[in-house]
Amino acid sequence: MNDGYGSGERAAGVHEYTLELRSEADTVQLAERLADLCVPGALIALDGDLGAGKTRFAKAFAAALGVPGMVNSPTFTIVKEYEDGRLPFYHMDVYRLSLEEADELGLEEYFEGNGVSLVEWASQIAPLLPPERLHIRLELTGAESRLAVIRPLGARYEAWCGELNLRSAEEGGERR
Predict the structure, then answer these.
(1) Backbone angles phi, psi at 37, to 5 degrees
(2) pLDDT tens profile 70-121
(3) Can you say whether the dihedral through the CA atoms of 138, 141, 146, 150 is positive or negative?
């Protein structure tokens, strides 16, 4: 499986953090804490198996940004734009796209815009993603529990991990 890294990112000393999410409430809390840190141009790249909680994370993230109403997965529309929150929110689901199809959509306009982009199944289009982003992979560990594997790519996202008080995977991860 593509891990969401582009060329040489792991070799470049990118840290990896792990966070145990023991319940849906923990997933919601992580999404809320990250939304609080967001600024224009932020990009959350989200991966995980079917049922790992990507859309639940995205809904909680949108709510924390102040997006009103129902937020659901843009599986068939690819991109949903929400303009009424604290920041514009661009929710993408690229599961059904090839790299070539995604490239033709001009997603970089969203990534370079004044909003926050959250891309579900981001590893599908890793070469098209900006070099700086926060990559989160949600892994199933039980019926309600998940492991969030968080890779900050860039100083802004590394600082976010510090603000979240995460420890690197090499240190045993953060156990809240």
Answers:
(1) -85, -15
(2) 777 766 678 989 898 899 999 999 998 999 999 998 899 999 989 999 999 9
(3) negative
